[in-house]
Amino acid sequence: MTSDPPAPSQTAIFTELVRDHMRAAPVAVAAGTPAADAVARMAAGAASALVVTATGGAVAGLVTEQDVTRRIAYRLDGAEPIEEAMSSPVTVIRDDDYLYHAIGVMRRRRLRHMPVVDASGAAVGIFELHDALSVASAQMVDRIDKLTHEGTIAGLAQVKHAQAAVADQLLADNLPAPDVLGLISQVNGDLYRRAMALSLTAMAGAGEAEPPVPFALIVMGSGGRGESAITADQDNGLIIADYPDADHDAIDGFFRRLAARMTETLDAIGLPFCRGGVMATNPLWRKTLGQWRTQIDGWMRRPAEAPLRLADIFFDFRAVHGDPTLARALRDHVTERAARASAFLNAMQAAQSDHRTALGLFGRLQTEPGRAHRGQINLKYRAGLPLVEALRLLALRHGVAETGTMARIAALAEAGVLERDEHERLRDAFMVITELLLRHQIRSLAAGGVVDSWIRRGQLRSRARRRLVESLKAIESLRAWVRSEFTADAF
User: Which of 14, 10, 16 is nearest to 137 (CA)?
Assistant: First the structure.
């Protein structure tokens, strides 16, 4: 790749968390504290805002310097409780939320300060808009505004619609395509979380109780790898904490209804239903942790066509909402179990052996022979997929838990499985393929055409064609080596 790498802040603002930029240990007083004492606490801590807490530590309100000036200095007796001066209800944000999301919320609501809370709702910091904007350029703020509409179905649909424009801008800034795909995946993960929040709120409004047990919402396929393109659909599931069998009807019934609401919301905002039914509404993809472990063990004991196909979809999962310990426990099980399942991995390699690249005789690009796509190359299935599959096989065999393609390449190189020059060739190959795919999809969307993975060979300029050929050669070399390694294991 010849372009210079972008400044780290271009992506950091979309991947870093609120906790990385908040002011920790907020000045806080309990409700009922006299106003004069609260102001003295602010002055002693040189704080521009003070959090008022209710019983149990939850945030009850916020007092800013402006509140001190407007409500206390000339209007309120110092002995009056601080509640008389605080702003309430107050907008808060979780410490594990994304930095760009916090900036967007504060800009929309014209807030200068926002309390940061942990999973229990207790205040753990103060987020100040000035601090966050110091790491964001004006152009970056414009992108943030496009990706952080209000959490309504209409607002989230606007977020989904804005993805392509933001991706185009970032590519124009020479951001590597895998990083742009990562951002799209991050935004989709945010859409999943916000769709889940809307669904839980709707269920509560209909008289449903809170979730009866902890759970984790997972995404699979390209979303699980952090490599979602413009046209991602739904590939999701639920990992539910184990519970007594006697409670199955009630507990699974709750999560079945929740999954239905969530998938309908996602479809409404622009993440369409999976035509293959890979969604949490399907019991195959909605299980307790113990049931997931049992199912995975069953797949690996019986490497027939159906289990291989299901495992291929599932293995790249990652959590986007809920209890992350459930997803980590399942990932540990998959990683440990797969490394010992030689017969299963051999069968998976054999099932994928005909997934060749678009590299034909004498190193020429091979297009599709059929009338529907004559002269075209499918960048997803004839370039990206053979690389993803080969690296997944190696990762499973060598106990590598990472799911992203670039992360797998790095981890396999670190483990000595890939030589350094091979590591570089495969990284470059993935960057070339993803950039061609992403630019093609953005152009198609802008032109009002079908957004897919088919690109005409004639559209490729000579340099792009050479880069694609070299990329496919690196992938075919990897596939040949993987084939020889796994074939040797089979005899």
Answer: 10
pLDDT in tens, 216-229: 999 999 999 999 98
Homologous superfamily (CATH) of 347-489 is: Nucleotidyltransferases  domain 2 (1.20.120.330)
Does this model's pTM top 0.90? My answer is no
Quick: pLDDT tens for 13-23: 776 788 988 88
**280-292, pLDDT tens digit by residue?**
999 999 999 999 9
In this predicted model, what pLDDT tens digit does every residue of 450-474 receive, in sequence order?
Answer: 889 999 998 899 999 999 999 999 9
Assign a CATH topology to domain 149-339.
Beta Polymerase; domain 2 (3.30.460)
On the 0-12 / 13-18 / 19+ scale of CB atoms within 10 A, 245 is: exposed
Domain parsing of the chain, residue ranges: 9-139, 149-339, 347-489
Give the integer Cα–Cα distance in Å for 12 and 139: 14
Rounded Cα distance between 447 and 151, Å, is: 29
Q: What are phi and psi of 485, to 5 degrees?
A: -65, -45
Note whether 15 and 180 are within 8 A (CB): no
User: Given 1.10.760.10, 3.40.1550.10, 3.10.580.10, 1.10.3720.10, which CATH number is that of 9-139?
Assistant: 3.10.580.10
- The answer for residues whose C-beta is within 8 angstroms of residue 41's C-beta and 6 or more apart is 27, 29, 47, 50
Distance separating alpha carbons of residues 234 and 363, to the nearest angstrom = 36
Q: d(Cα 40, Cα 36) in Å, to the nearest integer?
A: 6
Q: How far is Cα 323 from Cα 281, in angstroms, rounded to an integer?
A: 19
Q: Look at residue 1 in the predicted model and tell me its pLDDT.
A: 41
Mean of the pLDDT values across residues 170-174? Answer: 83
Category of 416 on φ-ψ map: left (φ > 0), alpha (ψ -120 to 50) or beta: left
Residue 249: its H or E element: helix 248-269
In this structure, are residues 475 and 397 in contact, taking their beta carbons and an 8 Å threshold? no
